[in-house]
Design a protein that fits this description.
The complex is a heterodimer of chains A (413) and B (155). Chain A is built from 18 helices and 11 strands. Chain A is of the alpha/beta class. Chain B has 2 domains: 60 residues, Arc Repressor Mutant, subunit A (Orthogonal Bundle); 79 residues, 3-Layer(aba) Sandwich (Glutaredoxin). Classes of the chains: A alpha/beta (413), B alpha+beta (155). The interface between A and B is large, with 54 and 39 residues. The structure holds flavin mononucleotide (FMN), iron/sulfur cluster and FE2/S2 (inorganic) cluster (FES). FE2/S2 (inorganic) cluster binds next to helix 5 of chain B. The site of flavin mononucleotide (FMN) has 24 residues of chain A, from strand 4 and helix 17.
């Protein structure tokens, strides 16, 4: 069952509008705009049960329903193509190889939330992707899917690419809004949530690339058929990104609920050099690591939460037995220390502090108490910050220490 | 210094997609970096005048973003990812190899101003680690041989 890679995996597929239409593309836009009301689309998406693919897993249809009714302000759609979570490289493949799939999702979503202006915020480094999208937008406009009076319906939509300029935090939705407005990417205090007050203080929906790329399928096939894919509370297929010590790294699309073991050993070809598995991060570097005896878990939102981790962005980072978790946690701590926006004290101070303690441990200068200090810091950051970046940096460190404490102790004695 | 006519037109076109002018700040700074190669204080002053905006506001924004460079770099900016997946796949060795080959340290530029070497965080290409970006282009699945070949092709 492929929804997102269906076209991409065809050998001669170029991603041009001709190719996309040959594969049945843009039929969902016609159906949505000509045969459905915006409310019916939101209803269909609610029925599908799809949850956001950007990391937080919020139900997409429910979020769209938060746009205030009868607002006299303009409404904005923002496609989050910041793709910055370490271990994640799934949105890029859609952008570069099937840009019209994403655009079709953006057009339908804009119509559903009654927006006439969509922004596609793409990380600055994806220069090729931004160019690719720009030419796809031109193609779609020429074909009458974007612009004024789309398909003779009277509905107007402009889609504009907005390039970021570096900074992981700009993927956090309110930081992204600040960045879009020309400011530093500093997260805003919530509430108000973007649906009530987002871009330019107007109602705004922010959705991830992969989320939006699922919308054409839902419109073509109905929310119920989408809900039949996957497992309870985690419907549909998901792009899994395999990286690290694995024989066949890459992007894989499977229904949610596939086991992590089968992802790694069956599809990913197992661990490099026939080594043993030591640990695996299931959802991008912000999510707690799993030990090698925890991989029979089902890859869905609830099952991973139940064992104290999370699906996150489904960036699966595999680590073999040669890895020292002190090195790994130092790499992760350095990332979060570097990327903290510095607005709140626990995060601004806590991240570098953790980095420095781990660095000291690695250099053989650690003290016994350091390990517990590390844990303390994670608890003093968690829940005490403006944005979830605090947890994103604290959770993984806590899990490395708790699950691989002996690696830390080895450097101390 | 001044934007070319073509860039000014591009800017006007961009502006037409936003309800407020400040939203065109990032696009404008990108245009400046493309045209001038970097965004010095002087360039920010010009941009502020061009956009009829406070230079302090502009400076505050520009300084936040890692891709905006305050000074000239080498003709080729080599940006090697050193985040987790790349690090697991040997980014450290790749960086050492480039350092040795170009005889510079990280954050330095070769005397002929051809190459500048920097370390960057995850480039969103972890499945083909280790990865680097040189100017706008990605280079993936790096090995020492590949680096020899890539660098020798750049003139
Ligand atoms: C630190 C941080 C970084 C984030 N980075 C991204 C990102 O790169 N891409 C993304 O789509 N969502 C990212 N998110 C999640 C967004 O805030 C937001 O939840 C998401 O874009 C909503 O879209 P969805 O409902 O379709 O998932 C990030 C969140 C945090 C806290
Ligand atoms: S938690 Fe960190 S990244 Fe988020 S707002 Fe506070 S300082 Fe900035
Ligand atoms: S870790 Fe290097 S590209 Fe993601």
């Amino acid at each position: 069952m492929k929804i997102l890679l269906k076209n991409i995996e065809e050998p001669d597929y170029t991603g041009s509008i001709q190719d996309y239409r040959r594969k049945g593309g843009y039929t969902a836009v016609s159906k949505a705009i000509k045969e459905m009301t915006p409310e019916e689309i939101v209803e269909e998406v609610k029925k599908s049960g799809i949850r956001g693919r950007g990391g937080a897993g919020f139900p997409t249809g429910v979020k769209w329903g938060f746009i205030p009714k009868n607002t006299d302000k303009p409404i904005y759609l923002i496609c989050n193509a910041d793709e910055g979570e370490p271990g994640t490289f799934k949105d890029r493949i859609i952008i570069e190889r099937d840009p019209h799939l994403l655009l079709e999702g953006i057009i339908i979503t804009s119509y559903a939330i009654k927006s006439h202006q969509a922004y596609l915020y793409i990380r600055g480094e994806f220069v090729y992707g931004a160019n690719r999208l720009n030419s796809a937008i031109r193609e779609a406009a020429e074909a009458g899917y974007i612009g004024k009076d789309i398909l003779g319906s009277g509905y107007n939509l402009d889609v504009q690419i907005h390039r970021g300029a570096g900074g992981y935090i700009c993927g956090e939705e309110t930081a992204l809004l600040e960045s879009l407005e020309g400011k530093r990417g500093w997260p805003r205090i919530k509430p108000p949530f973007p649906a009530a007050e987002g871009a330019f203080r107007c109602p705004t929906i922010v959705n991830n690339v992969e989320t939006l790329a699922n919308i054409p399928f839902i419109i073509n096939n109905g929310g119920e058929s989408y809900a039949e894919i996957g497992v309870k509370n985690s419907t549909g297929t998901k792009l899994f990104c395999l990286s690290g010590h694995i024989n066949k790294p890459g992007i894989y699309e499977f229904p949610l609920g596939i086991s992590l073991r089968s992802l790694i050993y069956e599809h990913g070809g197992g661990i490099k050099n026939n080594n043993k598995l030591k640990g695996v991060i299931p959802g991008g570097s912000s999510m707690p690591v799993l030990a090698s005896d925890e991989i029979d878990v089902s890859m869905d939102f609830d099952s991973l939460a139940n064992i104290g981790s999370a699906l996150g962005s489904a960036g699966v980072i595999v680590m073999d037995e040669t890895v020292d978790m002190v090195d790994v946690s130092l790499n992760v701590a350095k990332f979060y220390a570097h990327e903290s926006c510095g607005q709140c004290t626990p995060c601004r101070e806590g991240m570098p502090w953790m980095r420095d303690i781990i660095s000291r441990i690695k250099d053989g200068k650690g003290k016994k108490e350091d390990i517990d200090t590390l844990l303390d810091i994670t608890y003093n950051v968690e829940g005490k910050t403006i944005c979830p970046f605090g947890e994103a940096g604290a959770w993984p460190i806590r899990a490395f220490v708790n699950k691989f404490r002996e690696d830390f102790e080895k450097h101390i004695n | 210094m001044e934007f070319s006519q073509e860039t000014k037109q591009k800017f006007q076109e961009i502006l037409s997609h936003y309800p407020v002018k400040t939203a065109a700040v990032l696009p404008a700074v990108h245009l400046a970096q493309e045209e001038f190669g970097y965004v010095s204080e002087e360039i920010i002053e010009y941009l502020a005048k061009f956009m009829d905006m406070s230079p302090v506001f502009l400076k505050n924004t520009v300084s936040f973003y890692t891709m905006f460079k305050g000074k000239e770099t080498g003709k080729y900016l080599i940006q090697v990812c050193h985040t987790l997946s790349c690090s697991l796949m040997g980014a450290g060795n790749i960086i050492d190899y480039i350092k040795e080959k170009l005889n510079i340290d990280v954050w330095e530029t070769t005397p002929d101003k051809k190459f500048t070497l920097v370390k960057v965080e995850c480039l969103g290409s972890c499945g083909t680690a280790p990865v680097m970006q040189i100017n706008d282009d990605y280079y993936e699945n790096l090995t020492e041989e590949k680096i020899d070949e890539i660098l020798s092709r750049l003139s």
